[in-house]
From TrEMBL:
Highest taxon of source: Bacteria
UniProt-recorded Gene Ontology molecular function terms: penicillin binding; peptidoglycan L,D-transpeptidase activity
Coiled coil residues, start to end: none
Gene Ontology biological-process annotations: cell wall organization
Any one GO cellular component localisation term in the record: plasma membrane
Boundaries of every Penicillin binding protein A dimerisation domain copy: 52-131
Domain Penicillin-binding protein transpeptidase: 154-455
Pfam families given in the database record: PBP_dimer_2, Transpeptidase
InterPro entries: Beta-lactam/transpept (IPR050515), Beta-lactam/transpept-like (IPR012338), PBP_dimer_sf (IPR036138), PBPA_dimer (IPR054120), PCN-bd_Tpept (IPR001460)
Name of this chain's protein: Penicillin-binding protein A
């Protein structure tokens, strides 16, 4: 009998401890997250009593602002569709998306000690003020990228390779966040092409020949001697009974020419020599197969776990099961531009209180040393040759040396996706871009002129 009581007391004690730990967790750790959950009805109330912070681009241009009086606040987006998939929207009826969702805590002033300050204001019947966000985004460049993609499905990403700052993150089709009520039905109709999807960070595409930049990195790491080697392309390569082809027999070529004419046979051969582990390892250094910390949710780019010889040969030329987001391929390009050092991409430059006081400032930081400066420079030179006399001549700019790589990614959905990645000026890169246009054919024809316009506009600033 006594042991029974003791057991009961012990069990109750244990349950009590679990309860305390759990409550502490809810209160102290999960509190902010639970509070900011869009399903929390109290948040809706806070929303009505708070003047949401504004969102600015890197030059102080307004991307989102709140007008009107408490209880009847209205959110305006001066850049409309151009910034809709980055800034997002907030609506009592349709919820929230983009930075309006991911930075809710800042915009409503619900983080840190400001939470208490604003609670005090509300209790005294005053209007609480959220914090403002200043982005790294260049709204004019973003508008240009969006207009270049208009009428097509695709995405364009522009990064500053020296810092990782995101200058443009465009996706098409898009929508007008100022007209959600009117547009909601159209936006969600099957023929609309998923305008709520940010293809730049959530679209997974076969990267096609852009992947050869990753293959080249792995191959040069294993054997720098390949720069002097003579390769031979008869137009096809048989791997385990699977036949990989080039558009034509390229004959004898060196490494640089293989990049210039995008020879599948040479790059598949290089990947087979470097081995599956080295290929996967290199892709992982560039950011594949791991989650990326970013200001918006990013889909993970992937290289399949086990690669047999034919899957490796396919992966080396960006076909098969290799999938990447446009942001991922912009990161690959930026790392080569930045001499092998991949910077952490970021979109929010600073958070300021309503009065202008700085609360938080982003600090550029390296995410990964992908490769040495020598390998990065060798690849850059091959990309320069590709612009000056290879498949990417349409990306060239007068008076500025561009480095680029084209891709035409076969896919089951029809015509190939057109890719182009580029950076400029080649010797002191200030911008790296990745452009993909869905089912548009050759990258050098369709994507290159778009990337060129974005580079030119960015370098004029
Ligand atoms: Zn070839």
């Amino acid at each position: 009998m006594k042991t029974g009581v003791r057991r009961l007391a012990l069990a109750t004690g244990v349950i009590f401890v679990i309860l305390i730990v759990h409550l502490t967790y809810i209160q102290a750790i999960a509190g902010e997250r639970l509070y900011l959950n869009p399903l929390n009805p109290r948040l809706n109330l806070v929303e009505q009593q708070t003047q949401r912070g504004a969102i600015y681009d890197r030059a102080g241009r307004v991307l989102a602002r709140t007008v009107g009086n408490p209880g009847q606040f209205q959110r305006q987006y001066p850049y409309g569709p151009a910034t809709a998939l980055v800034v997002g929207y907030v609506s009592g009826r349709f919820g929230s998306s983009g930075l309006e969702a991911s930075r809710d805590g800042d915009l409503l002033g619900l983080t840190g000690w400001q939470h208490l300050l604003n609670q005090g204001r509300r209790l005294m019947g005053q209007v609480a003020r959220g914090n403002d966000l200043t982005l790294t985004l260049d709204a004019e460049l973003q508008r240009l990228a969006t207009s270049l993609l208009a009428g097509r499905r695709g995405a364009a990403v522009a990064l500053d390779p020296r810092t990782g700052a995101v200058l443009a993150l465009a996706s098409s089709p898009t929508f007008d966040p100022n007209r959600l009520e009117e547009e909601w039905q159209r936006i969600n109709s099957p023929g609309a092409g998923s305008p709520l999807l940010n293809r730049a960070i959530q679209g997974l595409y076969p990267p096609g020949s852009i992947m050869k930049l990753v293959t080249a990195t792995a191959a040069l790491e294993v054997d720098p001697g390949i720069l002097q080697r003579d390769f031979y392309c008869p137009g096809y390569l048989e791997v385990q009974g699977w036949k990989l082809t080039c558009p034509r027999p390229h004959g004898h070529l060196n490494f640089q020419q293989a990049m210039m004419y995008s020879c599948n046979v040479t790059f598949a051969t290089l990947a087979l020599e470097a081995g599956a582990d080295k290929f996967k390892e290199t892709a992982a250094l560039y950011g594949f197969d791991k989650p990326l910390k970013f200001d918006l949710p990013v889909e993970e780019s992937r290289v399949p776990g086990r690669l047999n010889a034919s899957a490796l040969a396919e992966g080396a030329i960006g076909q098969g099961a290799v999938l990447a987001t446009p942001l991922q391929m912009a990161m690959v390009t930026a790392a080569i531009a930045n001499k092998g050092i991949l910077m952490q991409p970021y979109l929010v430059e600073k958070v300021t209180a309503a009065g202008g006081r700085l609360l938080w400032q982003a600090v550029p930081r390296p995410l990964q040393v992908v490769t040495g400066a020598k390998v990065a420079t060798d690849i850059k030179e091959a990309m320069v040759a590709t612009v000056n006399g290879g498949t990417a001549t349409a990306a060239s700019l007068p008076g500025i040396q561009v480095a680029a790589k084209t891709g035409s990614a076969q896919n089951p959905g029809g015509e190939a996706h057109a890719w182009l990645v580029a950076f400029a000026p080649a010797d002191e890169p200030r911008i790296a871009v990745a452009v993909v246009v869905e089912n548009a054919g050759a990258g050098g024809v369709v994507a290159a002129p778009l990337a060129r316009e974005i580079l030119a506009a960015a370098l004029r600033r």
